[in-house]
Specification:
This protein has 105 residues and is an alpha/beta fold. The chain is built from 3 helices and 5 strands. The chain has helices spanning 28-34, 60-70, 81-92, and strands spanning 5-9, 13-17, 39-43, 74-79, 96-102. The protein has a 5-stranded mixed beta sheet, covered by helices on one side. Helix 2 crosses helix 3. The longest helix has 12 residues, at 81-92. It is globular, with a radius of gyration of 12 Å. The N and C termini lie far apart (29 Å).
């Protein structure tokens, strides 16, 4: 099973990557406020949310590679653990057009 990635809204793409123990649904308030201006891509990391049974390992390389392959060039926002994945994806590919890190190490 591949990672679950929910897509909502219309406009320039924005990828939102959640933190440890959460899932893309944590961004519901942002989806409500931004979906009329942005196309939001909300992956659930392996072992989380709808990706709890995904076969992908929870590693920087594997997750960043799969999310990059399944999302358009976009700005990325990573929260907490999601910030590590977003930062790693940005270091791998110019497909990450901008980077926002929220409470990331």
């Amino acid at each position: 099973m591949a990672l679950h990635i929910e897509v909502a809204g219309d406009g320039p793409p924005l990828v939102l990557v959640h933190g440890w123990g959460l899932h893309g649904g944590v961004f519901a308030p942002l989806v409500d406020r931004l979906s009329d201006r942005y196309q939001l891509h909300l992956p659930d990391l392996p072992g989380h949310g709808h990706s709890r049974d995904a076969h992908a390992p929870l590693t920087l390389q594997a997750c960043a590679t799969e999310i990059l392959a399944r999302t358009p060039p976009a700005a990325w926002l990573g929260w907490s653990l999601g910030g590590l994945f977003a930062l790693h994806a940005a270091s791998m590919s110019p497909q990450v057009r901008a980077l926002v890190l929220v409470a990331a190490t």
